[in-house]
């Protein structure tokens, strides 16, 4: 790392439009340039300039499919850095600007995706339940039985590949740690596949379904799924 490279990345983030784009991409999906332009409230040509800047510093990657240009975060490491930076910049005493923002903030705090794993109260609650079950130790590393649990309990082989098996990610809203890394992604993928969670519209906010509530209670002893429902 050099001072110049750090300054380049920081400068690329230090723009409200580009920050809105990065936050949108935190849902782990690829967005079209047009979708990002609409989300950020700028013209398509302006969005292209901002996207190019983010690509240049290595924060996002792009691919083309037909006429569309798809943009996504480079990897989970970028998402975790963004989540941590959000903790530093958050002003808890600042009231929401209107009912819509209050509803959005409440949904994101309740449960959301942080790139490819769960964050918010849902992510923290799952992490704490994994600790109680002995799947993780206090450093959030897998225990000797943890890897087997990830495969047997979730019904899908756990294959971390080259990425870190587990990582501790400081939660932006809860100010506590939640599970990231390959294990966190494995749990999120399994829960989406089983229909235990669903997204709220096009946002990265998620809610637990009735089936998910039963599954979380059975596997992890998490009760009161209503806390993570749309009305919770």
TrEMBL record:
Top-rank taxon: Bacteria
InterPro entries, per the entry: ArsR-like_HTH (IPR011991), HTH_ArsR_DNA-bd_dom (IPR001845), HTH_Metal-responsive_Reg (IPR052543), WH-like_DNA-bd_sf (IPR036388), WH_DNA-bd_sf (IPR036390)
Any single GO BP term: response to lead ion
HTH arsR-type domain span: 1-93
Single annotated GO MF: DNA binding
Protein name as it appears in the record: Transcriptional regulator
Annotated source species: Mycolicibacterium mucogenicum
Higher taxonomy: Bacteria, Bacillati, Actinomycetota, Actinomycetes, Mycobacteriales
């Amino acid at each position: 790392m050099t001072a110049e490279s750090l300054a380049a990345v920081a400068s690329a983030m230090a723009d409200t439009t580009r920050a809105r784009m990065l936050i949108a991409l935190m849902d782990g999906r690829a967005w079209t340039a047009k979708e990002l332009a609409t989300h950020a409230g700028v013209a398509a040509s302006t969005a292209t300039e901002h996207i190019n800047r983010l690509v240049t510093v290595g924060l996002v990657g792009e691919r083309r499919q037909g006429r569309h240009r798809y943009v996504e975060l480079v990897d989970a490491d970028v998402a975790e850095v963004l989540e941590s930076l959000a903790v530093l910049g958050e002003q808890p005493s600042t009231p929401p600007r209107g009912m819509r923002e209050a509803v959005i903030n409440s949904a994101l705090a309740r449960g959301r995706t942080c790139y490819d794993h769960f964050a918010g109260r849902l992510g923290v609650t799952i992490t704490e339940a994994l600790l109680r079950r002995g799947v993780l130790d206090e450093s959030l590393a897998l225990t000797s039985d943890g890897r087997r649990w990830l495969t047997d309990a979730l019904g899908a082989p756990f294959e971390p590949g080259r990425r870190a098996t587990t990582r501790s990610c400081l939660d932006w809203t809860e100010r506590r740690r939640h599970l990231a890394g390959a294990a966190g992604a494995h749990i999120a993928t399994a829960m989406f596949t089983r229909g235990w969670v669903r997204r709220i519209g096009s946002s990265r906010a998620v809610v637990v379904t009735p089936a998910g509530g039963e599954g979380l209670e059975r596997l992890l002893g998490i009760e009161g799924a209503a806390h993570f429902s749309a009305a919770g």
